[in-house]
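Audit log entry. Action: structure prediction of a protein-small molecule complex. Ligand: magnesium ion. The ligand was supplied as SMILES and no pocket hint was given, so placement is left entirely to the predictor. Protonation state taken as written. Sequence taken verbatim from the request; no trimming, no tag removal. Recorded inputs:
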Amino acid sequence: MNNNNHSDTSRVIDIQGITKTYHLGEIELQVLKGIDLKIERGEFVSIMGPSGSGKSTLMNILGVLDQPTTGTFYLDGINVAEIRDQDLARIRNKKIGFVFQNFNLLKRTTALRQVELPLMYAGTRGRTQKAREALESVGLGERLNHLPSELSGGQQQRVAIARALVNEPSLILADEPTGNLDTRSGKEVMQIFQTLNREQGITTIFVTHDPWIARHTNRVIMLRDGNIIADKHVASPLDAATAERPSEAEELQEVFETTYYGGKAEEYT
Amino acid sequence: MSLLETFRVALTALSTNRLRAVLTTLGIMIGVASVVTLTSLGASLQGYIQSQFEDLGADTLQISSARFRNTSSGTQPMTTQDAEGLAEEGVAPHVVAVAWTYNIQTTVRSGANSSTMSAQGVTANYADVNNWYPASGGAFITQNDIDSSARVVLLDSTTAEDYFGTANPVGQTLLIGGQVFTIIGVMEERSTGGMSSQTVLIPVTTAQTRLANAHVAGKGYRVTQIQAKVSSADSETVALATDEVEAYLLKAHGIRNSASADFNVTSSATILDSLSSTLSLVTVFLSAVAGISLLVGGIGVMNIMLVSVTERTREIGLRKAVGAQSGSILVQFLVEAILLSLLGGSIGIMLGGVFLLIGGQLAPEMSISLTPESAILATGISSLIGILSGVYPANRAANLHPIEALRFE
Ligand SMILES: Nc1ncnc2c1ncn2[C@@H]1O[C@H](COP(=O)(O)OP(=O)(O)O)[C@@H](O)[C@H]1O
Ligand SMILES: [Mg+2]
């Protein structure tokens, strides 16, 4: 393979033939069965798929939290397979912001300190100021010294988003960030992602089960049984600030059909 | 992550479980308290014994007749001839002064006060050799007093108080063995290590001739004890001087085999040496016992650190996910273990300080106090325990897989 193809820094993610196999005693479980995926800088991508289809597994590999069994992975032009352990930590720290379904905030730690955490491991100066700005950008300027127990689910997730973006990463990965939130909070969180992407051009990939949420992104990738079964541009993404969730079941069905389609991966190139 | 930050995180982690932290370090507390108490007590005891012996004169050989030793030639008494011979130039080069005493039990009376006690006949250099002098306002026995077998007496402070209360006895008289003695001074107070100190000092010749008949044909007079002051208190010099004295006396008494010597030469230095080594052996042994509590304490810290790592598995996963190096996680848990164990250590030092304070109240003359060495030792031990018991849990935390840690329920 020609390395020059991958030094193109406009491509944040370039993976080829990624597989992931878990060994459960005697049984081998292939969760990812050969994923090829290219994501350009500034893209806003959602990943959908039934439960167990391998979405989280893929996200963890993209976030350098886990290693694929086979395949190549270039992140920002860097061949991740060649990176030593300490440098993996640095890549997680500098290049990736991860947002989890269950927030994963530290107990008994103020919002400000949560957001300072990645800066701390980066050894950045002026942490408090940067953390405050990040919290302000997700609308929590008034909640700097609140503990997780003093924040609503949506607010906690926004702290987690601030923590993910504070180091100015190349890529934000969010695994079902709205999964634990009510509709309204979910929409707020969605709006933050959309704004960050539109205004700051932050490349964002997130997993969702909600087709309506997915319709806010520019590109939808469908996973099933460890394969990408569809990868499609969203013609006119919804605007989180203005779009109203259709209340009627029919309208929901319509959205579902425009998003969940049975196309092939080749349709997107 | 900076070290300061690491400390802050560790302190935060500990302070969320304060009671647990304190209970965990109970073993270390007790162990450190024991170490501190024992080593400090050992040092005070050693210092106390040393000072007691210094008062007795670690650099002085005590020579007395081996009265109960069965010798073929029979026991010859210790005499002034022996003493004067030892004092002669060149006989014992490492002996700088020779004093001798002749003690008798006698009645000492003043008015209605009367009791039987030891009257010690002493030479004029007795004060110098024993480093024991008259309190201000008094004079010691002079060579003149010796030559004239003068009836002068010095009292020890206890006797002076018994007989005269707070009044100054100098110039007054005492009846000793029925004879009138003029009091020329009171000896200064000195510690006696609990032994009875009551004695009166009179010129040795007075004791030998006026209060008793200690004449030995051809050899001058009987003496109770000869004191030979050695040129230096170090054990080597004391040993040399001992050899010289023994050689001279064996010859003077016509004994060839030193095993059948009819005298004893002892020095407080040799007694002190054996006593000190016994004492340090005891200290080491007791410290080893304390070490067992420390071991138990260390296992406690390791146990609680393992619990802590398990409890905080998700936190560790999250820290790794946001970019913590394995090394930072390792250091963080190690620092936490060290702080935990230092916490126990410092409480232990305080506890030991309290024990020593109580001990000091119980035995004020021993000047018991917490020695800085023992506190430093205890701190060092605590840190070491922290490191040893923290390495395994910290290593476990550092090696957690981020995803598995994040998924941990
Ligand atoms: N550590 C693991 N060990 C074994 N099987 C796993 C492990 N992680 C995930 N799996 C399995 O891999 C499959 C895909 O999991 P996941 O990626 O979490 O799916 P999704 O996020 O799409 O619901 C599931 O069947 C799951 O049970
Ligand atoms: Mg999942």
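Audit: result stored. Chain B has a mean pLDDT of 87. Chain B touches chain A at residues 1-2, 5, 12, 16, 314-315, 317-328, 401-403, 406 (CB under 8 Å).
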